[in-house]
Amino acid sequence: MEFDNLDDLRVLLATADTGSLTAAGRRCGLSTAAVSAAMKRLETALGARLFDRTTRSIRPTAEGEVMVDHARRALDLIAEGQAKLRGERGELAGTIHVTASSAMAQRLLAGWLGEFAALHPRLEIDLQVSDSWLDLVKDGVDLALRNGPLPDSSFAARLLAPAHRQAFASPEFLERHGTPAQPADLSALDCIIGRLRGRRLDRWRFTPRDGDHEAFDVPVHGRLACDNAAVALQWARQGRGVVYLSEVDLHEPVQRGEMQRLFADFDGEPAPLYAVLPSHRFTPHRVKVLVDALAAWFASR
């Protein structure tokens, strides 16, 4: 069996990853009809049915799973060879698909990623900003920046910052309502309620730093709720309430005096920042370089 080109293999992987001819077409820049034609060419060449199709989904057959696995490894090897050649020339080329939360993207990454791209003229950065966790494989993401703990151990992850969620408020809010002395005082204050992956964050966990007491939850209330960290932070900066976010997201507003961290003797629930890759298989050189640069940047902060 011979392939006319490698594009049909890329279409095969996109179809398997997304479970949709239409979604595979979007990823590959092809029409649904072109994706269907590529699948037919492969099935004819192999003499096997690669996918079971229903009105709602398309899934690999047993033969299709075998072909998907081998196609992925073949394309990984080709990409690795290309990456080595480019790395030897000191060039980064291609596209890196990155996803991050709204607060992190706006407060930290927008400027840094722009500067990183400027250093590598042949490199393209595609940043998807979302407070929902995208499916790295299905959505074609090369690198996700996520506040852990991470639920899926099949991902490859690198710790960038061992952070926690903390309670923050603006100086104007604290001037009007007073500075709470203990986390329990939050129950009497307006708080901005977050939502994370469908979970309403109206119980904020705190752990005393002295190590002599156990962690405890504080029920909080407020008239404002949001699943977007950037919006929640904007409300907090306007003095609308106390917010409970990762200290990584609040680093610059605190440095500028726009926000103040509360309860220095307590830590909120862990929210370590990870660089997450879709699998333990081959990682393009350009992605490795970006992750290394990010790690060095966070370490310097």
TrEMBL record:
One Pfam assignment: LysR_substrate
Leader sequence residues: none
CDD domains: PBP2_CrgA_like
Keywords assigned by UniProt, alphabetized: DNA-binding, Transcription, Transcription regulation
Domain HTH lysR-type: 4-61
UniProt entry tagged with the keyword DNA-binding: yes
Gene3D superfamilies noted in UniProt: 3.40.190.290, Winged helix-like DNA-binding domain superfamily/Winged helix DNA-binding domain
UniProt family annotation: Belongs to the LysR transcriptional regulatory family.
Protein name listed in UniProt: LysR family transcriptional regulator
